[in-house]
Amino acid sequence: MPVVISSIAHFVPPDIFTNAYFEDKIDTNDEWIQTRTGIKERRFQVSGELSDMLLPAVEQCLNERGIGPEEIDCVIVATITPDNSFPSASATLQHKAGMTNAWGYDLSAACSGFLYALMSGVGLIDSGTCKKVLVCGGDKMSSILNFNDRTTCILFGDGCGVALLEKTDDASVGIQDSILKMDGNGGQYLYMSDHGDGAKAPFEDYPDEIKQQYVIQDGQSVFKSAVVGMADVSAEIMERNNLTSQDISWLVPHQANLRIIDATARRMGLDSSKVIVNIDKFGNTTAGTIPICLSELHHQGKLNYGDKVILASFGAGFTWGSILLTWGIKK
Predict the structure, then answer these.
(1) DSSP string, 181-227
(2) Count of CB atoms within 10 A of residue 52's CB?
(3) First and final CA of the chain: distance in angstroms?
């Protein structure tokens, strides 16, 4: 019996920060940001923590499936910005959401976190260990940004998505294939500096000299690797499943840079109408980008039962990967 996404939801903070927000703070402007990244605005969680974003997404996901939190067997949270180093984000969320019968763990794979967590959840169900696994991907990136560093602070936003995994008796749908990769040599080009407690503070209120968590990135090196890596695995998963561009209904790519997304779509031979892009609204929410895209697509009524969907990501680690699934939620 295949494993299917049976429900999905997302949450982004209400506070919108356009590119104009940065113009008085650093040497940048709206045109420069849009031209190089495709980003027009992003959301920042000005107060509260990661769990405060995940909770409403979890509640919506379970409500739409028509089940209670006590039915969840395991919760996996893919994040690099947990509320605390410990207890885990999964434990915090388990308590807040009332998932009293669930165990769980956190998974750190940066922008590829949701894909890694998704396949971990599939493995738990395939093994018979669990029946219902809640896979969460999200980050409060504003808590680890240096707002004086124009090479990073303009790129990211806060947000999360949540997907419920369980078996289905319809063999024509479900998660069909995956390619997951990692190269630790890429860690020197995208990483976080010494750990502090910045994730617990409103994004501007924590003094920079105390908040020691910063995203540090060599943008050109990351860009070059991401263009190749994300495109390669997306093309490979099509080839080994004998799929053409006509067979694919949607590409749901990680939202890091519009040029990387475009390069991946070209390599797959996909028309832009089949590519989901919301980086203009939300920026890069790291582990949250793919489930947010999927949730938006689903709730806008654009995903049909039986649609073939490819998820693709590239992130710090380096980590990257692609997943092929056939959509299994009926309208």
Answers:
(1) EE-GGGGGTEEE-S--SGGGS-TTTS-TTT----EEE-HHHHHHHHH
(2) 17
(3) 22
C-beta separation of 135 from 107 below 8 A: no
User: How many angstroms separate the CA atoms of 71 and 92, rounded?
Assistant: 17
Kind of pairing, strands 174-182 and 158-167?
unpaired
**183-239 residue pLDDT tens:** 999 988 888 876 444 444 555 554 555 445 688 888 889 989 998 999 999 999 999
Find the CATH number of the domain harbouring 166: 3.40.47.10
Query: Which sign does the torsion angle of CA 124, 303, 241, 322 carry?
Result: negative
* Residues classed as catalytic: 111, 254, 284
| Structural domain count of the chain | 1
Q: Which domain holds residue 208?
A: 1-331
Q: Which of 258, 249, 254 is nearest to 230 (CA)?
A: 254
Place of tokens 């509260």: 48
Tokens describing residue 326:
């056939």
Low-confidence ranges of the chain (pLDDT < 70): 194-213
> For residue range 96-109, what is the model confidence (pLDDT) as tens digits?
999 999 999 999 99
Between CA 227 and CA 224 the distance in angstroms is 5
Given a contact cutoff of 8 angstroms between Cβ atoms, the answer to whether 181 and 160 are in contact is no
CA 309/CA 252 separation, integer angstroms: 7
Helix (H, G, I), strand (E, B) or coil at 86: coil
